[in-house]
Amino acid sequence: MPTRLARTLLGDGGCAFACDPDIPTGHNAVCWRSEVSPGVLLLTAAPSGFAVAPFSALSLGSVGDDRTDTEGREVAICDASGAFYVSLRHAEAEDRPAILLPLDDMIEPRLDVAASLVRRLCGKRVDLLPIRLRLTPLQKARLIQHLHAFDILRDGGGRREVAHEVLHSEQARLPSVEWKDSAARRKATRLIQDATALVERGYLKLLRGD
């Protein structure tokens, strides 16, 4: 039976198979479900009577990934701002594209994403991915720390190991009495708490730009 964490990941768009450890994580783009990520733009077919131009991913940037499944075609378009995902949900979405905007609680970031695409299609030099959906270098570094801490915890480690391997603190070598009141122990505790929350469902806030 899947663990609670596994069920959570599957329910939020994760995959039920292991990644090949020989393939670097940066090689393949990951397209989240549009229900959980406003960064995935939905295209459908425009009604008849509208004079619309065909959609071309290559005209917007380099294509990082292009796949087709039972729900349609998904394309990752890469530019300086990151990876911009387009999900074509209709057989004629590429020839007669229309933007589909669900009126959910993520409508504002969805509008930002749609506006970026429209500006690029109109020839304006703007980044595809809105600022609110990008990760800063500091956020990326912090996320790496969170994932490292969670891996240590999952493998049976504790706060000392996190302080030593993630925070690189010499205080991790202190005797028990001194370690108990150390700043490194407090930082490791917060890091473990934040990492656990992030892995269990907190990562959805990152996808939403919260």
UniProtKB/TrEMBL annotation:
The T6SS Transcription factor RovC-like DNA binding domain sits at 100-208
Q: Which domain of life is it from?
A: Bacteria
Q: What is this protein called?
A: DUF2285 domain-containing protein
* Taxonomic placement: Bacteria, Pseudomonadati, Pseudomonadota, Alphaproteobacteria, Hyphomicrobiales
